[in-house]
Amino acid sequence: MIDRQVLKTIIKRIKGPKALVLFGARQVGKSTLLKQIETHFTKPILKLNGDEADVRNLFTELTSTKLNAIIGQNKTLLIDEAQRINDIGLGIKLITDNRKDVKVIATGSSSFDLANKLNEPLTGRKWEFKLYPLSYSEMVNHHGLLTERRMLENRLIYGYYPEIVTSQGDEIVLLKTLVDSYLYKDVLVLEKILKPEKLQRLVKALAFQIGSQVSYHELGKTCGLDNQTVERYIDVLEKAFVIFRLSSFSRNLRNELKQSRKIYFYDLGVRNTIINNFNQLEFRNDVGALWENFIIMERIKHLHYYEKQANIYFWRNTDQQEIDYIEEADGKLMPYEFKWKANNKTKFPKSFIQAYEAEGQIITPENFEAFIL
């Protein structure tokens, strides 16, 4: 079994009155993770699944009396797919306020409304965690640095979903099943999207543009959607842990782009499945974009799992000067460029370095481990 980095942090948070909320896409390993920490739960344990209609009905018109009847003598309550349950935040609040002998752990395969349902009712009453596909760091801990280094090209093509990592030889078939089952089915059903073919066209357009600035207007023209619908669909895809947005950094310089954004994928295997391209790196023209997506996603996992606080951006100005990635932490800016092949000619824009007194770093396959481990 592959140990997850967030495991120790969750175990540390189990003791105490707060509920635990675990976000993550389907198939990233939430159920497996809960099994790993089940020995830390006080028994008996009640397990409920929000995908089941009778479970959802249990939480309608919830009162303290009904709540006690549901929980009974159980000391731990596990609620899977909690985002499917109306007013789940109020339900968990009732439990944490009235049944302090019961520990609540809720999971969601998407953040569709779940964060909104939980935030206000559970202010100060919950710990939140995100579980991503497996990370480079987790795989290094699992089978060693040398083995994972040798798998780097494979990860850029097939990604890090647990079933994909542990099923060498069947990656393409499994990825196509994964994309069909969760990417489109969950997004379409949960958001009641009426034009699935246009959503699929949008996702494909985004997959071809990783590492590039995106224009909602241009995407709309390509997909036959208006700007507002494009923005809503992108928001849905982000909440479903399919893509994430990186905003542009702007503070001092007059010619900085202030409203620009880039879009990346949570998992490169999913991205490559969408465009149906599983070619080896030597036969591809998108290696630079794959590398940039890979490093940024691995850095995000690192920041989250080690509970490091940083604002993240990219930078570009009207003169077409650009920096791939910037972190703002402790009052300092750290700019980074990501290059698949080391190039001594790579330089950071002087205007940025001088204006923000920042020192840039170039991340390549020769030195990336210090950045993400």
> How many domain modules?
2
The geometry reads as globular
Find the structural class using helix and strand composition: alpha/beta
Overall pLDDT confidence: 89
Helix content percent band: 40-55%
Number of strands: 11
What is the topology, as strand order, of the major beta sheet?
A: 2-3-4-1-5
Written as H for each helix and E for each strand, in order along the chain, the element string is HEHEHHEHEHEHHHHHHHHEEHHEEEHEH
What are the low-pLDDT stretches, counting only 5+ consecutive residues below 50? none
Quick gist of this model?
By secondary structure, the chain is of the alpha/beta class. 44% of the residues lie in helices and 16% in strands.
What structural keywords apply?
5-stranded parallel beta sheet, 11 strands, globular, alpha/beta, 373 residues, single chain
Please describe the topology of this protein:
Blueprint: H1 7-14, E1 19-23, H2 30-37, E2 45-49, H3 53-58, H4 64-71, E3 76-80, H5 88-98, E4 103-108, H6 114-119, E5 126-130, H7 136-143, H8 145-150, H9 152-158, H10 162-165, H11 171-191, H12 196-208, H13 216-223, H14 227-239, E6 243-247, E7 261-265, H15 268-274, H16 287-305, E8 311-316, E9 322-329, E10 332-338, H17 350-356, E11 361-363, H18 369-372
Parallel strand pairs: 1-4, 1-5, 2-3, 3-4, 10-11
Antiparallel strand pairs: 6-7, 8-9, 9-10
Helix pairs in contact: 9-15, 11-15, 12-13, 13-14
